[in-house]
Amino acid sequence: MIPLFDSNRRNVVAPVTMTVIVANMILFAFQLLLAQQGRLEEFFHEFGFIPASVPDAALSDTLKTVVTSMFLHGNLLHLAANLWFLFIFGPPVENRLGSVKTLLLFLIGGTGAAFAQFAVAPSSTLPMIGASGAIAAILGAYLFLFPLAMVVALVPWIIPLIPVPAFVFLLLWFAFQFFMGMTQLMDTGVTGGVAWFAHIGGFIVGFCLAILLRRRRRS
Length: 219
Hints:
Structural class: mainly alpha
């Protein structure tokens, strides 16, 4: 399902969400320049998160690549899909939690996502890139904050537009990530491709963080 819009107000200022979107677009344009120069693979290995490097690297170096990997994408479709989900679900979360907490949610969620992928593929030498783990944390927070909001989604090959409660949409999304991750793990092991367990880990971290951040705001 492809989300088109939700029932939350859209006339809100979401500086962190928009800054992340713009930063990813700028860095993707930079990647295109590197690709023309034949330096993109080297760039990914330097700034992507490589699970196999974790045991031998300093914690500061590992955390640096965790953060930089959140702003890199493999292709235009990868970028567009991630940024669209962030555009739909990010502003309501930022409006509810505030910009500082949303930034923490994005960064901590993305870090949790990276280490969730490391847990299932610690020997992988392929750089993990993409904001999807951090955006999954935004989705997890949205589930806690707006479970009954309506999400209008496009479902190809079935019905053009379907309004569904957010908890239905997001739990189906999570179930799909879990199914694909377990299928990948059982069939071939986690050696590359989509980092499904990063999505799973980021979503769980985001949901739990939203509980903590919301409680602190109320107190």
